Amino acid sequence: MSDSAAAHASELVAVAAERRWAWIVGAIIALIVVMMVVTGLHWASMPPSRVETIDAKTLHLRGEFVESNLGTTLAADGKVTARLVAQQYSFVPQCIVVPEGMPVTFRATATDVIHGFVVGTTNANTMVIPGFVATFTTTFNKSGEHLMPCHEYCGTGHEAMWARVQVLPRDEFLARARSGERLSCVAR
Ligand code: CUA
């Protein structure tokens, strides 16, 4: 083999190797882009808070969101939990009692379509999606009453869908909560 033929052969080897690595790097970039798109779409289609699922078809029959379990509870360890259900076009319970100055964990789900709620001008705000439990913990620093409107368009009755939230002074709440029942401020 002449010198120029040998140089040509080694150039071909180098070009082939470069082309092979270009394909490998291209495949790695494509894989990363696909992972970004898939995870982006996955998270965009999920509720904003922790992902906890529930069967929307049996909410009223059994489990955490049966009607007798809705409202606010004070656990033995002092944790306050407010459970509610959103449906076209109301919240159950219609009036929610929470204490002032104590962390309150909201747990909510929907029976039919996507709803949402925000408590007055506080940062208590979530979407409520059938099949998922929306949950967040917040503390109300001032006693008083807030309106809690649905803020996801859910049908013709959407603008009439709202509840009230009464923030009670801590002592008043604790005095009422000791009975162990599910508290609400719905008139009986
Ligand atoms: Cu429920 Cu809008």
Q: Structural class, please? A: alpha+beta
The parts where pLDDT drops under 50 for at least 5 residues are none
Bound molecules: dinuclear copper ion
Portion of residues in helices?
A: 25-40%
Radius of gyration: 28 Å
Mean pLDDT: 91
Sheet with the most strands, sense and barrel status = 5 strands, mixed
Secondary structure tally: strands? 10
Taken in chain order, the helices and strands follow as: HEEEEEEEEEEH
Distance between the termini: 103 Å
Strand content is: 25-35%
- Global outline: elongated
Number of helices: 2
Question: Would you kindly provide a written description of the structure presented here, covering whatever features stand out?
Answer:
The protein is of the alpha+beta class and 188 residues long. The longest helix is centred in the first third of the chain and has 42 residues, at 3-44. The model has no long low-confidence stretch (mean pLDDT 91). Strands 1, 2, 3, 5 and 8 form a five-stranded mixed β-sheet that branches. A three-stranded mixed β-sheet has the order 4-10-9, covered by helices on one side. It contains two helices and ten strands, in the order H-E-E-E-E-E-E-E-E-E-E-H. The N and C termini lie far apart (103 Å). Bound molecules: dinuclear copper ion (CUA).
